[in-house]
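Work package 3, deliverable 3.1, input record:
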Amino acid sequence: MYAFLFFLNFLLVYTVFAVYAERKISAFIQDRYGPMETGYYGLLQTVADLLKLIQKEDIVPLKADRKLFKPAPVIIFTAVFAGFAVLPLTSGFSGSSAQIGIFYLLAIVSLDVVGILMAGWGSNSKYALWGAMRSVAQIISYEIPLGLMVVCVVLIAQTLNLQEITYQQGIWWGHQKAEAANYLFGIKALGIETTHIGGVLTWNIMRSPLLLIGFVIFFIASLAESNRAPFDIPEAESELVAGFHVEYSGFRWSMIMLAEYGMMLLVAFLASILFLGGWNSPFPNIGGVRLAEWTSGIPGTWPGHLWGAFWMISKALFLVAVQMWIRWTYPRLRLDQLMSLSWKYLTPASILLVLLCAVWRLLML
Amino acid sequence: MIESNLSEFGVLLIFILGALLFAVVGLLASRFIRPNRPNFEKLTTYESGEDTVGSAWGQFNLRFYIVALIFILFEVEIIYLFPWALVFGDEALVRGTDWQWAWFAMTEMFIFIGVLALGLAYAWRKGYLDWVRPPQKVASFKSKIPAEAYKKYL
C-alpha cells in the first residue's frame, strides 16, 4: 500500500523532471539553451505543460473505433505501472515480495503491446496504424533477448525474487542466508571470497563476468522495449508524426507519455537490480577501510533504508540519463536494420550466453 | 518495516487496480475542466492536412505476422527455461546426486535450446527474417564528358 503510493508519486514527480531533463540534455548536446522562460532556468516548464494538458479537449476522431480508442491509454499505463509492484527499493521496502517477482514483471509489462495495438487500430489513421504495427513488431522482437538475459541472471541467482537477487549482490547476504558466500568472478576454485568485501565486486556483472555482456544486450533491448531512440521508428517524427498516439490529445495523450517515461524508469530500475547490485553500495570494504559498511546501513534500520533508496534511485536515474544521452547521439535505425539487429545478432548471442551462463553456474558450486 | 494484512499477490492487485483508478480519476477530473466543443473539421482523421482517402483498416505487410509467429515460439521457450533455470544450479540437488543432476539437466536443456536455435537458423535461411527493402535504382545516364575533364577544376 505504502509502496503503491510511493511509486505512483515518485513516477509523477520523476516524469515532470525527466521531460525537463530530456529537453535540457538535448539542448546542451545541440549547443542550445532549451526551456528558459518559465521559472528559474525553465524549471517550471513541464509543470506549465502539464497544467495545459489537463485543460485540453479530448478529441475522438469520427472514424475511430471508440470502444478501442478510449480505454487504450488506460491499459498502456496500467500495464507499465503494475510492473513497479515487485521492485525492491530498499532492503525492506518493496511492493510485493512474491516469489515469482521477475516473471510477473515480464508478463504484465508485455501487456502494453495490447494497449498500443488498440490505440493504433482504434484510431483508424494510417500514421497510427503503421506506428502501432512497427511498435508491436519491435517490442515483441526485442522481448526475446530481454527475456533470455533475465534467464541468464536467474541461472546465476537461482531465484525469481528480485529482493533475494539484490541481497546476493552485497555484504548483507549473510543476514538472509546463513551459508551465503560470494567468490571473485563466481569461480569457487579461485578461492577468493568476496562476501564481506561487497561493493562492485559482488554485483552480478562481477559474480559472473558473462553478465557484463548480458547487461549490454539487456540495455539495448530495453531501449527498444521503451520505444526510445535509436529504436524509435514507431514514432519517427519525420515520417509518422507521432506513431500510434497521433490522434490522442489532452489527458489521454499525457497518460501515454507517462507510460513511456514510466517504462524508461522501470527498465532502468530492472537493469540496476539485475546487473548493478540494486540498493547495494558500489564501494567495497578494503581491509580496515569499511567503505561498503559506511555507505550502507544495516537492513531494517533507518540508515539502511535511506542508503538503499539513495543508491537504488541514483543508479536508475543514471541509466535514464544514459538513455537520453543515447537518444540525442545516435541516428534512428531503419525497420530492416532493427529487425536484423534483434533476430540475427542479439537473439543468437543471447541463446549462446544462456548456455555459457549455465556452465558458469556449475563453476560457482 | 511496514506490516500489512495483504498477501503478496494482494499487493500486486493493489498496484493494478490503483493504476486503473488513477487513470479513471484523472480522466474524470479533466472532464470537469476541459472544454468540449467538437466540430466536423476537428474530428477528421489527421493526415498532415490532406483529406483522408479510404479507411486505414486495410492490408499491411505480412512480415509482421511472421515476426509474431516466431516471437510466440521463442516466448514459449523462455517460459520453459524459467523453471529449469531455477532448479538447475540447486546446490543440495547437485551435491546429493554427485553432479549427475547438473549434467543431466544441462544436456537435456542444451538439446531443447539447440532445437529452437535450429528453428531460428531455418527461418533465417528461408529469408523470413529479412525485411523487403525497396531496390536501389542506379541511374543509367551516361555523360558524354569524360571524367578526366573534371580533374582540371579540382
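The first helix of chain A runs from residue 2 to 29.
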